[in-house]
Amino acid sequence: MVIAIHGGAGTILKSEMSAEKESAYKHALQTSLNKGFSILAKKGTAIDAVAAAIQVLEDSPLFNAGKGAVFNAEGKHEMDASIMNGRDLSAGAVSGIRNVRNPITLAKAIMEKSEHVFLTGEGAEIFAKQHHLEFEDDSYFYDENRYQQWQKINATDAFQLDHTSEKKFGTVGAVALDSFGNLAAGTSTGGMTNKKYGRVGDSPIIGAGTYANNNTCAISCTGHGELFIRSVVAYDISCLMEYKGMSLKDACLLVVHEKLLKIKGEGGLIAIDRNGNIELPFNSEGMYRGWQNVAGGAVEIYGN
Hints:
By secondary structure, this protein is α+β, with helices and mostly antiparallel strands. The chain has a single domain, classed as 4-Layer Sandwich (Glutamine Phosphoribosylpyrophosphate, subunit 1, domain 1). It has 9 helices and 13 strands. The chain has helices at residues 19-41, 46-58, 103-113, 121-130, 138-141, 144-153, 225-231, 233-244, 248-262, and strands at residues 2-10, 79-85, 90-97, 118-120, 168-169, 171-177, 183-189, 210-212, 217-223, 267-273, 278-279, 286-293, 296-302. Strands 1, 2, 3, 4, 5, 6, 7, 12 and 13 form a 9-stranded mixed sheet that branches. It has a 4-stranded antiparallel sheet with strand order 8-9-10-11. The longest helix has 23 residues, at 19-41.
């Protein structure tokens, strides 16, 4: 039984991180890990553990997902999420939704209760209401720091990656291996501040930002979405393992530190293979991340 989580990667400046803020981030990450691992410890499924761990991060204003989602160009919150079950390759994804409290819950409902994989916008919200998912008013998603980030570039053609003084890829995610040998992965995000045109990144795209296959691994990514889409990062790692016989570690190193860097793709990912090996690689200055298994665990922000 293993679980790993992330809360975004990028240029996370230690010089601008107060002890109080760092403690708050680590507490949120640990709470997420505890929630997910407790499900695994009770013989729960990897898919349930992943969804529960991500819900904790979506409910925190510290991360750019759910409650902490950034403002788009219209001053609204558009959220994306996806989830995948490595046991049967079933998956659910959603993009461009508003007011759904936990986008990962909607992605999971699409996977389990529909014949589809990917729903968007108003149609996805109708599906969520039909399945009695929880909605919140705009005020729930309002965060003063996020608002000030948006105000600094509102009415311009600029967009930015979550923070003003830090180039941070605001995404949350989780991967898990349960006691039955099943893998699962999930990812959720609020996207880019001041994003326009219904922009969608890699987070809800199966194979780009999220992938799970019991034969290989489970992956959740955080980075500059356009480049992760072009590199099909999550699936590429699985393919390197399946078709070239590479280890999880070697596949992650090749994709994150060579392939992505060649096209100036910044970010990272969390990964678990079918044997419970964990990799948390990133080519940026930091990544909010954590892992836990029966022997222990850790949460970290800086350093590789």
